[in-house]
Design brief:
Blueprint: E1 10-19, E2 22-32, E3 37-41, H1 48-56, E4 63-68, E5 71-72, E6 80-83, H2 95-100, H3 107-120, H4 136-148, E7 154-158, H5 166-183, E8 186-190, H6 194-200, E9 203-208, E10 211-217, H7 229-242, H8 245-255
Parallel strand pairs: 3-8, 3-9, 6-7, 7-8
Antiparallel strand pairs: 1-2, 1-4, 4-5, 9-10
Bound molecules: adenosine-5'-triphosphate.
Amino acid sequence: MESELGGIHLKLEGLRKSFGTQAVLRGIDLEVLPGEFVAIVGRSGCGKSTMLRLIAGLEAPTTGNVLLDGKRSHRIEPKVRMMFQDARLLPWQRVQANVELGLVGSQADVRQTASQALCSVGLENRAREWPAVLSGGQRQRVALARALVGQPRLLLLDEPLGALDALTRIEMQQLLERLWQEKQFTTLLITHDVEEAVVLADRVVLIENGEVTLNLRISLPRPRVRGDMALAQMVEKILHRVMGKQERENLKAIAH
Ligand SMILES: Nc1ncnc2c1ncn2[C@@H]1O[C@H](COP(=O)(O)OP(=O)(O)OP(=O)(O)O)[C@@H](O)[C@H]1O
């Protein structure tokens, strides 16, 4: 199960997390194979970000285990990187320095590694810029370069494309898919956009009230095309599950 290259094998066993008397995660069991791309969907507040923070080692579970390549992890693992809705760049550092942050090695090696990462996200010409002059999409590209620079084996993405306009979002989805295919890191993506989940993921996992209530394999061939009938049907199927019965009836009543 141990492998230095490629994606991490991730297993969540009976993962529970409570904050005071509030039980947020109520026993999550989930296995993600090396190099798999899993999208996590669910209503606001159902516990998605909490789950990612537990996997990242930023918080400890109340009970249950996070297993990385079969081993319980007790610390923040360098091969696990996380990306958020906001890029979280240091505004007083240029793009290049933001990507170099935390890299170890000779100055020349660090510079070269960061430059390659910037190149892989198409920002090789913006290395000398300040974050403030970049667009939101470019800032997220820098954040992606910063996440990739340490050659992660598990990438945890907490709604990283949520604040982007529709076209930039599609470009970023394509970039993410290309880099995932090239580098084969295991990926967990939280998204509120069910179509994004179906376009990108091998599997879509629905969390409701802190439990996994749907674990659906998406076996559509890649690259997937928005507007494709089979893809649209899959999106409908998941939306149908996400929405409660009452909401579906309300929508029907509006439509009539
Ligand atoms: N550190 C904390 N202390 C107390 N409560 C917390 C903490 N972190 C999360 N919660 C609570 O846990 C619940 C789940 O939060 P979480 O951020 O995991 O949800 P989410 O599904 O990611 O939501 P969203 O889609 O809106 O980001 C919320 O009710 C939240 O208030």
